[in-house]
Design goal:
By secondary structure, the protein is an alpha/beta fold. The protein has helices at residues 17-31, 43-50, 54-66, 100-115, 144-157, 159-163, 172-186, 201-212, 227-235, 280-293, 351-362, 367-378, 381-408, 433-442, 472-485; strands at 39-40, 70-73, 77-80, 130-131, 195-198, 218-223, 239-246, 249-250, 263-266, 296-301, 325-330, 342-345, 422-426, 445-446, 448-449, 462-466.
Length: 491
C-alpha cells in the first residue's frame, strides 16, 4: 500500500491519504516508472487495490490532472501526459558558469585537492591520542561562566541590541576599548574612528583585496607564509612574489629591484608559520620602501599578545607616520575561534571605502557578541585571561622546545621564539613529510604538514606542532613517539 512505501519523507506520514497517493503516483510518473502515454488503472480498480475509498483516489488523480501530469481520454481511460520528460539516467551536474574570480578559485581548490597534503584531519581519527593541532581552544582555559553572564545581561536588559541593525563599523564601545587595548599592548596609536570590526581577519583580507587588487597586480608575501592569505589574493587575480623569511621574518633587502608591487603582506610580531620577530630596523626599512614605491603594508597581528618573555612587541603600525600600514587583529587565538570577531585599523584615506564595502557585504557583525566582548575587555576580564594564557601556553611551549631538543637534537631545526601557539619543525631533508605524518598517525599522534605554507615547489619537509591543546606530559610523550619514527635520521 502507498502508506508503507519506504521512500516517503518522514513528514508525509501525517498527510491525508489522498495526498500520499498523489505523491506516490507523481514520483512514479516523474521518475519514468510510468512512462509518457502509459495507462493508469481506472479509479475504481486502483481504489480496490489500495484498499481505500474511491473518492480518495479520485482526489489524488484530480491533483495530478490539474498539474498536467495525466489526462483522461473519453471512453479509453486515464493516461500519463506525453509532455512528461523522464530523466535520462543521472548525468553529472553541469558546472555553473563562473566569473574569472570563481574560475581562479576553482583552479586553486583543484590544485589543493590534488597536491595539498593536509595531514590528519583534526578530530577525524578516533585512534588519535595526541593532537598537535594549532590554535585550539578549550573550555578549561576560558572563563565561560563570565561570558554567559555577559551575554545573558544584554539579552535580558537591552532589547535595542536585538531589534535593529548595528553600525557597519562595529559597536562603538567595542571600537573604543580596542583602540585603548592596542595602544597599551601593541603601541598602535589610533582612535575608535579608525577601528572597524570584522568577522575575523580573513574577512578583512577579502575586503582589502577587493579594494586594492586588480587582476595581475603584484603583491609581496612571506615564504613560508599564511596560506589562507595566499588563496584570497590569488582568487582576486594577484601575482604573488614570495620573499624568503629567516629567523627575523621578512627582509626588505630581499625585495627584487624590478618589483612593481605596491602591496606587502607581513606578520612581523611573530612570523607565520616559521616564527621569529621582525626587528624595528627591518620594519622601518619596509616603511621606507613603501614610501618610495607609494605602497601599503598589511600587518597581520594574528597572535601578537601571546608572547611569553615579557610584554608583547610593539606593532609596525606604531612606527607608521604616513598612513601606510593596515593593521589586522583578531580575538580568535586569545578568546575562542567560534567567536569570529576581528578588527582592522585603517589609514584615514581607506576608511570610507572599506566601510562602504563592509556595508555592501553584510551590514556589520552581530551586535550582541560585540557588546559582550566590549564589556569583557572593559571590566578587566580580557587582561586576566591573557595573563593566564601566557603562563599556561608559555610552559607548554617551553616543554615542546625542550622535548624537541632532547629527543631530536641537531637532526631537526626550528626557531625557538617565545611566542605563538605552534612550532614549525624542519625535518631531515631525506625524511618524507607525508610518510612521517602517516606513521605518526599510526602511533596515535596527529602532526600537520608544512608544505601548504610554502610557495616554491618541493619545499623542505616540515611539520607544524601546536601545543595549546596538550598538557606538558602529553607534549613530551608525543615528541618521544615522533622521534621514534624519525630514528633513521636522528644523529
Amino acid at each position: 500500500m502507498i502508506e508503507n512505501e519506504p521512500d516517503h519523507p518522514a513528514g508525509e506520514a501525517h498527510e491525508p491519504l489522498h495526498r500520499r497517493i498523489y505523491r506516490q503516483l507523481r514520483r512514479e510518473i516523474l521518475s519514468g516508472a510510468r512512462p509518457p502515454g502509459s495507462q493508469l488503472l481506472p479509479s475504481r480498480r486502483l481504489a480496490a487495490e489500495l484498499g481505500v475509498a474511491r473518492r480518495t483516489v479520485v482526489a489524488a488523480l484530480d491533483q495530478l490532472r490539474t498539474e498536467g501530469l495525466i489526462f483522461s481520454r473519453p471512453g479509453a481511460g486515464i493516461f500519463v501526459s506525453e509532455a512528461v520528460i523522464p530523466p535520462a539516467g543521472q548525468p553529472p551536474a553541469a558546472a555553473p558558469p563562473l566569473s574569472s574570480w570563481g574560475q581562479r578559485l576553482r583552479r586553486r581548490a583543484d590544485g589543493a585537492a590534488e597536491g595539498g597534503e593536509r595531514g590528519v584531519e583534526r578530530g577525524s581519527r578516533r585512534d588519535i591520542e595526541l593532537d598537535f593541532g594549532s590554535g585550539r581552544s578549550f573550555a578549561s582555559t576560558f572563563p565561560y561562566d563570565i561570558w554567559r553572564r555577559l551575554l545573558g545581561r544584554y539579552l535580558s536588559t537591552d532589547d535595542a541590541i536585538l531589534s535593529r541593525y548595528g553600525s557597519p563599523a562595529g559597536f562603538e564601545p567595542l571600537r573604543e576599548v580596542i583602540a585603548d587595548h592596542v595602544a597599551r599592548l601593541r603601541g598602535v596609536r589610533c582612535t575608535a574612528e579608525e577601528v572597524i570590526i570584522v568577522s575575523g581577519s580573513q574577512q578583512a583580507l577579502d575586503l582589502l583585496s577587493r579594494l586594492l587588487l586588480n587582476p595581475g597586480d603584484e603583491i609581496l608575501v612571506e615564504n613560508p607564509g599564511y596560506a589562507s592569505a595566499y588563496e584570497v589574493f590569488t582568487a582576486y587575480g594577484a601575482t604573488l612574489t614570495p620573499i624568503p623569511v629567516d629567523g627575523c621574518g621578512f627582509d626588505p633587502a630581499a625585495i627584487p629591484a624590478e618589483s612593481r608591487a605596491r602591496l606587502v603582506f607581513v606578520t612581523p610580531s611573530n612570523q607565520f608559520p616559521q616564527g621569529g620577530a621582525m626587528p624595528a630596523g627591518r620594519q622601518m626599512a619596509l616603511l621606507e620602501w613603501c614610501r618610495e614605491h607609494q605602497g601599503l603594508v598589511i600587518e597581520d597581528d594574528y597572535d601578537g599578545e601571546l608572547r611569553y618573555d615579557g610584554q608583547p612587541l610593539a606593532a609596525m603600525r606604531g612606527l607608521d607616520t604616513e598612513g601606510r600600514v593596515i593593521y589586522l587583529g583578531t580575538f580568535s587565538k586569545v578568546l575562542f575561534p567560534a567567536l569570529r570577531l576581528g578588527y582592522v585599523v585603517l589609514p584615514p584615506a581607506l576608511r570610507p571605502l572599506f566601510l562602504r564595502a563592509r556595508q555592501l557585504l553584510d551590514r556589520g557583525g552581530p551586535t550582541l557578541t560585540q557588546a559582550a566582548v566590549a564589556e569583557f575587555i572593559a571590566a578587566g576580564h580580557f587582561d586576566r585571561h591573557l595573563r593566564k594564557l601566557r603562563h599556561l601556553y608559555g610552559r607548554r611551549r617551553a616543554a615542546l622546545a625542550a622535548a624537541l631538543r632532547e629527543n631530536l637534537g641537531d637532526s631537526i631545526r626550528f626557531i625557538d621564539a617565545p611566542a605563538g601557539l605552534h612550532i614549525m619543525v624542519f625535518l631531515p631533508p631525506a625524511a618524507g613529510e607525508k610518510w612521517v605524518i602517516e606513521r605518526a598517525a599510526e602511533q596515535g599522534v596527529a602532526v600537520y604538514p608544512g608544505a601548504p605554507f610554502h610557495l616554491q615547489p618541493d619545499p623542505p619537509p616540515s611539520l607544524l606542532l601546536g601545543f595549546s591543546g596538550l598538557d606538558e606530559a602529553q607534549i613530551t610523550e608525543g615528541v618521544r613517539r615522533l622521534a621514534a619514527i624519525l630514528h633513521p635520521w636522528v644523529s
